[in-house]
């Protein structure tokens, strides 16, 4: 049984074998393996006897947590005493702190500190931080003075445990790297990749990315990691204050102390050229310097590449959510020691695009504001995010100044393109940029190079919201926003109508393009927002064109139509009929069946007034759905039989598909399960022919239910898993829940209670996060009775595990395990 990790004040101990490669060569593989095994046994025995809990091992290194500093130091003494009799020489670092303990382990800046301390020591030596010394009264510690470690915070006291003479510590020496105010958060992958590049073949590496993404901090840390690799030195050359490209070479000479480039050419050195974007005319001189200095490497930070021979461009992206939250919490606690994070912290990080500078500035506001109040004010980021460190460069003291720095380097053509592209929300395509903003490939490429746009996939682009807010200000000041908003809305109405997202479009032969629609969901929303205040009638036309998409967001659909209908004037009858149908469909999916029935009936009456036979048949089907939901199966059968005949007579494949689907449910209700399965297979085939994946999900789930009743367990699970996969790829949360519930039922039927519990636990966890429409109000109780009946301890064990698993995670694991990643190419072979 694994021991629990200590919490509160924890002392970390890190071990590492000195010269492991040399030891392997000396002892040979078998001798080294034996020595390594003895080393591990000795360490683990010392740790266990002194209360240590092993956190991690990597190669020959151990990372251990102790509840007391005294225990950690006692373990270190015991281990080092044992190693005197062995060929293995181990360096040990010890540090105490108060990390956050999560389900995944320790989080916080103290976690890696012991490893940093061990790294500057020598085999047989145990080094101790000031925080551990303060907790270990009476320990035999000898001061080694103040040293800078590779996290680049200021020099701090380091102590040696016990006697022994060792060479000087390997702390930072030949460098002018700036002292960091705090440790680097995250960026482990980037550090590994960049240090590898510069150790190997790369002569010049340029870190590019938007202002505030942390390029300088990362570059300085990379330089610190490479101190030992460049005996000639690692030199930081700040260029933000250099205005003339002719002064770049003198700046290099001044930072390195070299009399001229000829002297520098004889060194094995790394130059960190910081903020090169406004001095690109000097890039040729840097290229010439590298050509003449074979052992010199350059690591540059710039919002655009230098474009010199041998350059490797490396994009520095914003921080992922977890690292962004760690940074925000750490910086908030630096200004407010009692800061306690809550669920809004992650949303703050997302709203700030994970940009380190924005997070640092936001943290300074947490001195006086609570997280929730800060989040509410982030609709206006630029006025709020000011007040950076006084010792920071001026352009980094406010978010606005950081973006202005990049903006002011653009020519007039790119300034125009930059502000016009702000009309897009989320990602946008090349076609949309050309059609709406009049921005072509060359301008897009230049803005990507300037780190003001981010390429997404093969033909889409993203402007970070922090940058977009600034661009929108420029658009408004230029007086271009109103006209561009209408162009944007018209483009996305045309797009929606061409994507086959309404039942009329599907009947006309358009295959619904769910993936393309999801790509532009943010732009559809932006167009609807504009229309609500500027042209509500236009907004209703757009909203009804998005009918299939509303199945994924029924609550939003209801809110949108409520606002638009309240503001629009007289609607054409056909448009009102479609709007009422959309409201009915969204009400049904949201679980408000009475409201759904009311709106279906009103829509049917309008289609009858219009003399629209197709609309009448379709709405009669919707009314039949409402009848089934209130238990009137007889009248539903009559309507559906007539609808099926009329649909087949007119060649209305969409209406035939939906009639077959509901008739299958009617037959199942009447006990004709095989007939229900046969009708549903026809429905499934038709829905695939139409390309209507949302309806395909429904057919697959129904067929799985019928197969289970017929005793065909494998087929039932296969169909439910295929439905789950499609729903997951469409981001259809409600149908993912239905498919998972079917799989939980199947697992109970198979006797796999642990799997059933895990799936049901994930559903419960999702329900607790947010309501799931008609699942909650109509179907959950029915499934719950079947799944929970007779459940035992195995089910309960899986239940607890599932509650801590996201819907997406459990769906992905089930689909991957089943090997049912369907594609368009193999759609005919789907179960």
Task: Give the helix/strand layout.
Elements: E1 10-17, H1 20-49, E2 53-58, E3 61-66, H2 69-83, E4 90-97, E5 100-102, E6 105-107, H3 113-119, E7 126-129, H4 130-135, E8 141-147, E9 156-161, H5 188-199, E10 204-208, H6 215-225, E11 233-238, H7 248-256, H8 261-264, E12 269-274, H9 283-292, E13 296-301, E14 311-315, H10 321-335, H11 344-351, H12 356-365, H13 371-376, H14 381-384, H15 399-407, H16 412-420, E15 427-429, H17 430-437, H18 441-449, E16 454-456, E17 460-462, H19 465-477, H20 481-498, H21 503-507, H22 514-519, H23 521-534, H24 536-545, H25 547-550, H26 554-567, H27 573-590, H28 593-610, H29 613-629, H30 633-650, H31 653-669, H32 673-690, H33 693-709, H34 713-729, H35 733-750, H36 753-769, H37 774-788, H38 793-803, H39 807-818
Helix pairs in contact: 1-2, 5-6, 10-11, 10-12, 16-18, 17-20, 20-23, 23-24, 23-26, 24-26, 24-27, 26-27, 27-28, 28-29, 29-30, 29-31, 30-31, 31-32, 31-33, 32-33, 33-34, 33-35, 34-35, 34-39, 35-36, 35-37, 36-38
Task: Write up what this structure looks like.
It is a single chain. With 831 residues, the protein is of the alpha/beta class. The protein folds into 6 domains: 10-161, Nucleotide cyclase, GGDEF domain (Alpha-Beta Plaits, 2-Layer Sandwich); 188-315, Rossmann fold; 321-402; 410-444 and 454-479; 489-688, Tetratricopeptide repeat domain (Serine Threonine Protein Phosphatase 5, Tetratricopeptide repeat, Alpha Horseshoe); 708-829, no CATH class. 58% of the residues lie in helices and 11% in strands. It is built from 39 helices and 17 strands. Strands 2-3-1-4-7-9-8 form a 7-stranded mixed beta sheet. Helix 23 (521-534) runs parallel beside helix 26 (554-567) and helix 33 (693-709) runs parallel beside helix 35 (733-750). The radius of gyration is 33 Å and the shape is globular. The chain starts with 9 loop residues before the first strand and ends in a 13-residue tail after the last helix. The model is unreliable at 820-831 (pLDDT under 50).
